[in-house]
Write a structure and sequence with these properties.
By secondary structure, this protein is mainly beta. Helix content is about 10%, strand content about 35%. Bound molecules: FE2/S2 (inorganic) cluster.
């Protein structure tokens, strides 16, 4: 099952597979997500998904049940 992933603000679209790590999808798309610990604790790698949830991309894979997803690297942190 493949999912179309759009990265903002660069507006790059790639096709990814469910379960593919988000950082791998990003690097395939030529999009650089800043990272630090790669363990889900430093939050350097946070991105916004579909204009809502903020997630750590280092511990996130492409979820099932979607045909497309927007990943925004340039969101306004609430804190
Ligand atoms: S790199 Fe530290 S939380 Fe993802």
């Amino acid at each position: 099952m493949s999912v179309k992933i759009r990265f903002l603000p660069d507006d790059v679209v790639v096709v990814a597979e469910v379960g593919e790590p988000l950082l791998e999808v990003a690097s395939r798309a030529g999009v650089e997500i800043p990272t630090g610990c790669l363990m889900g604790s430093c939050h350097a790698c946070e991105v916004e998904i579909d204009g809502g949830a903020i997630i750590c991309s280092c511990i996130t894979a492409v979820p099932p049940g979607k045909t497309q997803m927007t990943v925004n690297l340039n969101f306004d942190p609430i804190w």
